[in-house]
Write a structure and sequence with these properties.
Low-confidence stretches: none
Shape: globular
Largest sheet: 6 strands, mixed
Radius of gyration: 13 Å
Distance between the termini: 40 Å
Order of helices and strands: EEEEEEEEEE
Number of helices: 0
Number of strands: 10
Length: about 120
C-alpha cells in the first residue's frame, strides 16, 4: 500500500506561485501514473494534472493549462506541482493520487491523504 503526503501549500497573492510536493512510500513509486486533484469549498474534487511513469507524458485540465506544471523525481519518490500565475479560483485543498492509466482522470487509490491548502488572495 502506497502512502502519500502532500505539502507546500500556503497563502499567496493573485499572480504568485506555489510549489506543491507529494511524497510517496510503501511501494515502487515509478510503477504508477501520478496525478494531482483539488477540491474547493462546496465543490466536487476535480482532476488537475497527470504524469506518466517516466515523466515524458504530461496532461492538464483546461483550467490550469499553461499555468501549472507537473513533474516527478522517482529517485526521491516525489511528485511536484508548480503553480504559477495563480488566481483566486485556484483556492482549494490539493491532493495527489495514482491514476488508473495514462488516459484516466480517475484516482487509483480509494483513500486520500490530508492534502495541502492553497489559498490565493485578490
Amino acid at each position: 500500500q502506497v502512502q502519500l503526503v502532500e505539502s507546500g501549500g500556503g497563502l499567496v497573492q493573485a499572480g504568485g506561485s506555489l510549489r506543491l510536493s507529494c511524497a510517496a512510500s510503501g511501494r515502487t513509486f515509478s510503477s504508477y501514473v501520478m496525478g494531482w486533484f483539488r477540491q474547493a469549498p462546496g465543490k466536487e474534487r476535480e482532476f488537475v494534472a497527470r504524469i506518466s511513469w517516466s515523466g515524458a507524458w504530461l496532461y492538464y485540465a483546461d483550467s490550469v493549462k499553461g499555468r501549472f506544471t507537473i513533474s516527478r523525481d522517482n529517485a526521491k519518490n516525489t511528485v511536484y506541482l508548480q503553480m504559477n500565475s495563480l488566481k483566486p479560483e485556484d483556492t482549494a485543498v490539493y491532493y495527489c493520487n495514482a491514476l488508473k492509466s495514462l488516459d484516466s482522470y480517475l484516482p487509483l487509490f480509494n483513500s486520500w491523504g490530508q492534502g495541502t491548502q492553497g489559498t490565493v488572495s485578490s
